[in-house]
Amino acid sequence: MMKELENKLEQKEVRPTAMRLLVLETLQKQKAAVSLQDLEDTFEKADRVTLYRTLKTFQEKGLIHSIEDGTGATKYALCQEGCECAPEDMHVHFFCNSCEDTFCLPKFKIPEVSLPEGFVPMETNLLVKGVCVNCTA
């Protein structure tokens, strides 16, 4: 398992340090996106700055993407295999009003938006709010 994680980091040109391997392993186990605070709670003795830098490195290298879900805390989720988090890979996110988890819905792509001439899009985000399947069960 650790060798698999090391390979994943090396493929993205990220040096596989112990903390990076632990964070990647933790992110792979998540069913929903996590915040920096969530990771801090998971790694009690980890330095907040180190965790933040790890997330930023992962984001810059296309391992994870960030999600603004309206809670005031940026959430992070692993990119799907083969996804480069480019505009054509952008997908819908879902925020559950009940459990407050944020989910990636990679099969549901954000449709292309036509903008007036002279407008240059830099980022697109589509967040749907409601009640997730776990909370409606």
From TrEMBL:
The keyword Zinc applies. Its cofactor is Zn(2+). Keywords: Metal-binding, Zinc. It comes from the Bacteria. Binds 1 zinc ion per subunit. GO terms for biological process: negative regulation of DNA-templated transcription; regulation of secondary metabolite biosynthetic process. SUPFAM superfamilies: Winged helix' DNA-binding domain. InterPro entries: FUR, WH-like_DNA-bd_sf, WH_DNA-bd_sf. Pfam families: FUR. Zn(2+) binds at C96, C99, C132, C135. GO terms for molecular function: DNA-binding transcription factor activity; transcription cis-regulatory region binding; zinc ion binding. This is Transcriptional regulator. The lineage of its organism: Bacteria, Pseudomonadati, Bacteroidota, Flavobacteriia, Flavobacteriales.
